[in-house]
Amino acid sequence: MQLLGIFGGTFDPIHFGHLNPVREAAKSLGLKQVRFIPAANPPHRSKPVADSHNRLAMIRLALKDYPEFKIDKRELNRTGSSYTINTLESLRKEFGNNIPIMMFVGADVFNEFNTWHQWQQIPDFVHIVVMTRPDHPVVGTSFLENPNWKISQNVDDLHSQPHGLVFFQDVTPTNISATKIRSLLGKKMNVDTRLSQVLPASVIEYIKLNNLYVNHP
Ligand code: ATP
Predict the structure, then answer these.
(1) How far is ligand 1, taken at its centre, from the CA of residue 137, in Å?
(2) In the structure, what pLDDT confidence band is assigned to residue 135 with cuts at 50, 70 and 90?
């Protein structure tokens, strides 16, 4: 049966804290494809530091080593805020209502889920797979009392229903964030060894070639 994984973010820049947990989670859930969906204008946070063109170029380079991951540019191609609900409507138009779609989010994002635009409708479109993240315990679960949400820890349920479940997926903790990476890059000292542990080499090269994140606080 066809299954689809999706993973949204600003990817400013993309790093191993995105790539490794999603690879691990996708494998354990039997997904053959995950679409990375970069946000153009995320409504919940400040504007990305790197522009869409550069963020997209870095994702392209990073995904070369992950054949199961594809880029999906639908949010970059839209104008206005990148509301997830609109992205999900557009995915359902393309893939129909029957295939299971699993939306990956880190625990930090999940904790703030009830601030998203039309969040109550999101389970009408997808399953939500919450990936554990160091320093971000899942805390904000009171909104799960909404009858639209059903927690399941059974992978078979995720495969047999197209949407509507919340699944908690343990992944190997990866203590990396784009914020930390931008701040490392903004420092005037040599941080090459640390960078090579958190970013693919091709992305480091691109960042340096294009002087991204220099003078960043
Ligand atoms: P920033 O530090 O700029 O907020 P970020 O590193 O959190 O960025 P985003 O692009 O905002 O990255 O996040 C996209 C998705 O990746 C979110 O669902 C987030 O929770 C998840 N994510 C990011 N880093 C990790 C990590 N180290 N482990 C697990 N999930 C992560």
Answers:
(1) 14
(2) confident
Q: For ligand 1, is residue 10 a contact (CB within 6 Å)?
A: yes
Alpha-carbon distance 57 to 4, whole Å? 23
Rounded Cα–Cα distance for residues 33 and 26 (Å): 8
3-state class (DSSP) for residue 97: coil
Nearest to 185 by CA among 198, 170, 172, 174: 198
169 lines ligand 1 (CB under 6 A): no
Give the model's pLDDT for residue 42: 67
Q: Which atom of ligand 1 is nearest to the CA of 106?
A: 20
Annotate 126-152 with DSSP letters as a single string: -EEEEEPBTTB-----GGGGSTT-EE-
Q: Hey, whose CA ends up nearest to atom 8 of ligand 1?
A: 178
pLDDT confidence band for 186 (50 / 70 / 90): confident
pLDDT digits (tens, 9 = 90+) for 72-90: 999 999 887 779 999 999 9
Q: Whose CA is nearest to atom 31 of ligand 1?
A: 106
Paired tokens of 114: 């009830």
18 Cβ below 6 A of ligand 1: yes
Which is the closest atom of ligand 1 to the Cα of 16? 27
What interhelical angle do 52-63 and 201-209 show, nearest 10?
150
pLDDT, greater one: 161 or 43: 161
